[in-house]
């Protein structure tokens, strides 16, 4: 297999893996609505608003994140967005600790 073709195959596999992980995590957050409502004492509306905010911000930020990737390269942008996402998930875990954490988590995870 020529080197060019091997590099293309690696790019496709890695891109597919990144997209699968991101979309899988994003699509499965609805499964946690009931446990979050029961364990943390928040309403389904509050959790649903945080997820809706996350999806809106995610959609609106795509052109800007893409432009940043074009300007600075994909590696720093992937690292920065992974850190924001991890921070958002961490805030979701601590949502019962302080008010507004769930909405801020929805914003960061987007």
Short note summarizing the structure:
The protein is mainly α and 110 residues long.
Describe this structure in words.
The chain is mainly α and 110 residues long. The chain is 83% helix and 0% strand. The chain has five helices and no strands. It has helices at 3-27, 33-40, 44-72, 74-93, 101-109. Helix 3 runs antiparallel to helix 4, helix 3 packs parallel to helix 5 and helix 4 (74-93) runs antiparallel to helix 5 (101-109). The longest helix has 29 residues, at 44-72.
Q: Roughly how many Å is the radius of gyration? A: 17 Å
Approximate strand percentage: under 5%
Based on helices, strands and strand pairing, what is the structural class? mainly alpha
Instruction: Give unreliable regions as ranges.
Output: none
Compute the separation of the termini in Å: 39 Å
Number of helices: 5
Helical percent range? over 70%
* Silhouette: elongated
Largest sheet: none
Assembly annotation:
single chain
Q: Overall pLDDT, averaged? A: 79
Q: Give the H and E element order.
A: HHHHH
Tell me how many strands there are: 0
């Amino acid at each position: 297999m020529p080197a060019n073709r091997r590099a293309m195959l690696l790019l496709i596999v890695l891109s597919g893996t990144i997209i699968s992980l991101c979309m899988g995590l994003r699509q499965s957050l609805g499964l946690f609505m009931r446990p979050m409502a029961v364990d943390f004492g928040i309403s389904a509306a509050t959790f649903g608003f945080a997820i809706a905010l996350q999806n809106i911000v995610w959609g609106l930020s795509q052109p800007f994140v893409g432009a940043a990737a074009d300007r600075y390269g994909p590696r720093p942008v992937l690292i920065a967005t992974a850190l924001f996402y991890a921070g958002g998930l961490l805030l979701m875990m601590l949502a019962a600790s302080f008010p507004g954490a769930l909405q801020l988590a929805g914003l960061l995870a987007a």
